[in-house]
Sequence to fold (284 residues):
Amino acid sequence: MKKPSVRLKNCFASKDVCTAIKLCPVKAVSYIEVDEPILDKVLSCNCNEREARGLTPMSVDGYSSGCDCAGGCENEGGDPLYDCGGTPYGRIIIDYDICIRCGICAKECCGDAIDMVDESERISGERLLAVFTKKPDEIDAIKQEAEAQYMGGGYCCSEAVIVSLRKHLVPDMPEEAIAMGSGFCAGIGGAMCTCGAVTGGVLVLGCLFGRVIPGDAKGQRAKVLSKELYDHFLDMHKTSCCKALIQGMDFHSTERRERCTVFVGDMAAKTAELIARERDMNKE
Fold:
């Protein structure tokens, strides 16, 4: 089975005319705006002459240009494609939890910006990071999301951290990333060792900044950030040992859950801060 994947440099999004948003039968496609524009975006319309014309450069200053088929072609959604201008600050994102993989968004995208790719295809950390949208003053919402997912969402500590970061920061992260956190619950499978909130954050950092190629120096950044996250936890809570953190508490008690909720929220927020900082550094 294939899933839709957005090519950001071809996505000159506008929430008012985006056909992918309008025609998705399950409302899995949505629009967001971010602080950093993509200045070298290009757009091609989805009419029959697209291949002959090739990609049409967009006007960044005017934030609109659309395709160059002024003859008035339109797609199956009825939108005149020569009006499908957008903004370099716009993005469309896909919620894979509700996406049914029908391919309509890829077929009808007026910017020819959505491909159908194999479910198993790995999305690079750079691409995931490119759709990071949160500002530092919004990170508290991520913290609250993680806490809510842990207290009432049915997720354990490590899973709740991953769920909140995936939902708010990197929606293109495969949902299997959540499953990777399942084994780290309660200090690694209930062993009461390293706190699962810490390992959940480390897993997300590895996904964004780690390596898949042997010897790739890129992996060093994931190690540095993970150590920084770990040190932050030690500074705040003095130990990372699950057993020591909840010493004297009944594991099934409300008191213990409330205590662990603090760790979950803290790690989700700190991981988000590290991601935001790295993204800002990469812009410079």
Summary: Residues 42-85 have pLDDT under 50 and may be disordered.
